[in-house]
Amino acid sequence: MMTRRPVAYSRRERQQQLMETITDEAAALATARRAFAVSEENQMSYAHGRGWSLQHSADPDVVSDMQEMRVELSVSFSDIVDHDIRAIDRFIVAFANAHERQVLSSVIDVVSESSERTGNIVDSGGDIEGGMLEALKLIQFGVDRHGRPTAPVMVVHPELARKLTHIEANQTEEQREVWEHVVAERERQATVEEAVRISRFRWKP
Fold first, then answer.
1. Residues 34, 103: contact at Cβ < 8 Å?
2. Which of these, 15, 72, 83, 149, could form a disulfide with 187 (CB 3.0-4.6 Å)?
3. 129, 141, 137, 136: which is closest to 168 by C-alpha?
4. Exposed, middle or buried by CB within 10 Å (0-12, 13-18, 19+), for 123?
5. Count of Cβ atoms closer than 10 Å to residue 99 Cβ
6. 96: number of Cβ within 10 Å
């Protein structure tokens, strides 16, 4: 019995729908991963141009440049021949992973450049707790869209993360009070700076 052989690209509409679905799923997962490094509240869109400066920043004369991120992925020929639809999931996850690595690398590069430019660098000299406390005193807290102070995100090596967790669990009451005092002061300063920023506008919140 003769059977009709499938013809490539004979169902362009469904193929287009499949590609759009895959693209949407990959973009959604990449966006969720990106939020770990840069919250949605700190993400802004630009209609044109490749450079910008923030007039209310600590250094308004510094112009930031747009950075390009590229991800190249491939699907094996055997997956196509075997009709292995699991390749779709692998493709989506691989795209999100590659995007996340580039975003984290970009954020770390920007922070490093800013730290070197401003001199905002702390050498713990082996005293991890003392170094972290000193760094906390130099970090500028931000606020969310409701004006509430938000603590910065820490990106550290897993080994350092374990050490910090151990240090926090074994703090004395006096050490904990010192940390809480510093945090409260940084939050107060963030609130004051946000009030000054809002006062520049004519409208009242």
1. yes
2. 149
3. 129
4. exposed
5. 20
6. 21
To which residue do tokens 């102070």 refer? 149
The pair phi, psi for residue 182, each rounded to 5°, is: -65, -45
Helix axes 12-37, 86-118, angle to 10 degrees: 30
- pTM of the model as a whole: 0.57
Measured between alpha carbons, how far is 21 from 15 in angstroms, rounded to an integer? Answer: 10
Is the torsion defined by CA of 196, 200, 202, 205 positive or negative?
negative
Which pLDDT value is given to residue 186?
A: 92
Say how many residues make up the chain. 205
Coil/strand/helix, residue 149: strand
CA 199 – CA 205 distance, rounded (Å): 9
The percent of the chain in helix, strand and coil, each rounded to the nearest 5, is 55, 5, 40
**What tens-digit pLDDT sequence spans the chain (205 residues)?**
455 555 555 677 887 888 888 888 888 888 887 777 666 665 555 555 566 555 555 566 666 666 777 777 787 888 777 888 888 888 888 888 888 888 888 888 877 877 777 767 777 778 888 888 888 888 888 888 788 888 777 777 889 889 889 988 898 999 999 999 999 999 999 999 888 888 877 665 5
Provide the token pair at 2: 């003769």
Contacts of 151 (CB under 8 A, 6+ apart): 141, 183
